[in-house]
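Notes from hallway chat w/ T.B., transcribed later so I don't forget. T.B. wanted the structure written out for a chain they're using in a teaching module, and asked if we could keep both sequence and structure tokens in one place. Agreed to drop them here.
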Amino acid sequence: MTQDELKQAVARAAISYVVEGEIIGVGTGSTANFFIDELAKMKDRIKGAVASSEATAARLRGHGIPVFDLNEVAEIAVYIDGADEINALGAMIKGGGAALTREKIVASVSKQFVCIADGSKLVETLGKFPLPVEVLPMARNAVMRKLAALGGQPKVRCKAGSDEIFVTDNGGNIIDVAGLAITDPVALETQINQIVGVVAVGLFAARGANVCLLGMADGVRTLSY
């Protein structure tokens, strides 16, 4: 199976976790996009969705799925999103698609977090994928020095094929931190969150996944935490 076929398989499997008659939290990225396409097939059986990015909101609306602002919603039954890495305890690195802050906010108010990913995303130790950190623009260099002091190799994310600094939906910048072997994700998440100027860090460990649906060559593997 190709990587896209694996992503499609877990997107289909995730539909069984959708709570009918409720509002669904939807993530950002290529795997989440496959899920949105599957969710569209049952859009008349849900109230709508809360999106973790402007791109996701546009795709949901394109399928005729009502999109709610989180401030209009008291709780979300389930949040379904991909991951750049996930370990055996359900801790994740997210933010390759630059939506980590809104993803973290939506996940925080959801009763259940279902991660959908192809099997290559399952790792023993987080950190091979550079850790995204969203920062306020004025604090960019100051935060980079603090991240370097933690042993990382921070680099400001630029637009693809350009030297222009990337700007998130929130008006922030992203620092990608390479060279980390994250053996205690909860502790590092807490430590980076406390750096002044950090908006959010792409470690989802204090609130990790409840379930991970992994697309493998022999089918979808379910991990529960």
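Follow-up for T.B.: The chain is about 25% helix and 25% strand. Might be a good example for the class.
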